[in-house]
Amino acid sequence: MRKTAILGIGQTKVDEHWDKSLREIGGEAAFLAMQDAGVDRVDALYVGNMLSSMVSGQNQLGAFFSDWIGLWQRESVKIEAACGSGAAAFRSALMAVAAGDVESALAVGAEKMTDKAGRDVTAALATAADADYEVEQGVSFVGINALVMRRYMHEFGWKHEDFAPFSINAHANAMHNPFARLHEKVSAEKFEKSSMIATPINLMDASPVGDGAAAVVIVPAEKVLRQPKVVVAASAAATDTIAVHSRKNPLFLNAAYLSSKRAYTMAGVTPDDLDVFELHDAFSIMAALSLEATGFAERGGGVRLGLENQIGVRGKIPICTRGGLKARGHPVGATGVYQIVEVVQQLRGECGATQVEGASVGMAQNIGGSGATVLTHILRRE
To answer: Which tens digit of pLDDT belongs to each residue from 196-226?
Structure first.
């Protein structure tokens, strides 16, 4: 397998883009990535998306986007893995390049979520859960996470206000990211007084939906002359049961543990070697569980890292340095590619006020469903 590197990145602002179609926001990110890479063509296109058939009424996104951006006659396919679709598309693109099948590949994560009523989007998001044993019983996706959070609080003795640092950190970092949806600071008081969605999850525990797209161009590492060079040190994926109640331990993200363990081995690193971690904070409980599954905290101890100020850009393990899902926004099928773009920005030293000093190794972890599909990537600056 050939060593691969990221030559170019591009992204659009996460927002309610009433004036832009799915093809326009996805095309914008793709063109920006190719412009950053200094190329006008690639050999293959992989599109990460979850909701296009249900929200936009459009499938066949490979041909849809390749036609729009002028990549006719190239391999172009849509990759779907629920909220993990973006990272799955990125993994498909880098595997094609690493295997020598193509010399360049474009991974685009694109999602349009605001063209339907909220109830319709909620129903579409629920397709990431078990249709027979979760959704059929009337449990929404946020409801599933609320049940997990309530059990976590009961098992480990945490209070709801103990989760506030995750939201506070994400919003503070998003203030410096022009592509983030939410540019407003959050205080502990605002966190606690926020409207309840599904007890104990309130508005400040949950990431906002939105329209957005991000893209990266991947090539063999030896073809990258720009400095610093950002190489893909590891790519790993794992799955768990789709239904939370079927897991041996519903409070442990086993797929996150397995994929990160494989990634660490592949990259030859440990959690202590990571300078930045873009985790999947769709809900604050997922931030805590992710930190535990990836080896930064003991089980039940992920919350403590926030309370001890260890998750900021000057902390032990900086997370969500550009706002994370919580404040950058969570256009589900695009999120995994946004995470990759943000790690690349850190390794290039392009993050301004939220730059992690000396960042040379970064990890992005994208989760599909409530932990059913997890993809972990480690990038290194060379």
So the answer is: 999 999 999 999 999 999 999 999 999 999 8
